[in-house]
Amino acid sequence: MSDNFKAYPDKKATGNFSEEEGKYCVRDINLAEEGKLLIDWAESRMPVMMGLRKKYSETKPFKGYKIAGCLHVTKETGVLIKTFQAAGAEVYWSGCNPLSTNDAVAAALAADGIAMYAWYGNHEDFYWCIDRTIDPRPHLTLDDGCDLIDTVHEKYKDYAKNGVIGGTEETTTGVHRLRSREAAGELYYPVFAVNDAETKWDFDNVYGTGQSTIDGIIRATSVLLAGKNFVVCGHGHCGSGVAKRAKGLGSNTIITEVKATAALKGILEGHELMPMEDAAKVGDIFCTATGVKDIIRKEHFAVMKDGAIVCNTGHYDKEINIPELEELSVSKRTIRPNCEEYTMADGRRIYLLAQGRLINLAAAEGHPSEVMDMSFANQFMSHLALVEQHKTGTNFAISVMDIPEAQDELVATTKVIEMGLKMDKLTDEQVKYMGDYNAGT
Ligand code: ADE
Q: What is the CA(56)–ligand 1 centre distance, in A?
């Protein structure tokens, strides 16, 4: 661990932060024991990660490499960080959303030698924390939402061009941003789009988001979902997961879409398709999952039913236009954690959950460990590929890179084996048949 950190008296002065010789900044280091138990629990459900940890703690391929991460500090992320640490890396970390850090997990990691800069409710010092993880000039960056990559590119341009070997991006929104950066000629180092791995978006985005979003809504409201009109805005991977689970709990599911193929998939899943202006009038619960801004706005709030619940599960808090909701309302009060009631001039009440930030992490614990096992195996293996390439004295071309098919296959196969299940194998004859363009009828 580098000891070039300074103390942070201004953060300490708030009375909320523990800080030991400036090596981390978390809410309360005394929560470490509680956080360790959470990480232990996640480890027991993440066999692919634990296999990687076992294998690479012997060879330590990351020895001499510093990695900075900007990703939700959850018990699952704890497993990822500890795996990098066991494989020899020096790890520097910040949370990637003001409301997603588990303070106990952050404390456990800080106590374990991780340079952790994250706490729940960190709105003001969000970028300060990211800067602290860049101070030691890491070789690798690991993002969820692109804030670290953006900061390195905008604020530390020379270092981005000459000091970083490569990075990874975890989420759909972040990959979109990266691709626009690449198209504009403004990408300065190679980045793996972990989000686009089959073993990530077909599982984490669908089943992870599906379950954790419903979990967040229930924890924030405790409402019955059966019989409610549940509107999911966006039927991509994440939205489809939410709609599936809401339907499974007995909601009348309605989807809104701009892309015809995604809309059709939703229709064939049994959801009703409507434009937002119609859905706004009938919905009891609304959940945005689009990655786009202003999905729920003034004209929609204006026609919503009394008691409507509104939340977001996309990466940024821009999908619900909160300033417009504030503008329309005459009063506001907090009903319970992560549930705010806005009263309109005509007396209707609209409930906003988790300040419009991702409900699954702000009000619940994010995706379950079992799916993060695969997403994070892809993160780990992508960084391993970057380091191994670097050790050859060359580097990948600067671009947004897809995860190699072989990696996807390895992660999936390991997962199936670890679940104690068996698949079939093609016979030699079948392999031959599949490659035979003359097979005919
Ligand atoms: N994103 C969604 N769920 C997550 C989790 N449990 N840990 C880290 N990032 C996440």
A: 23
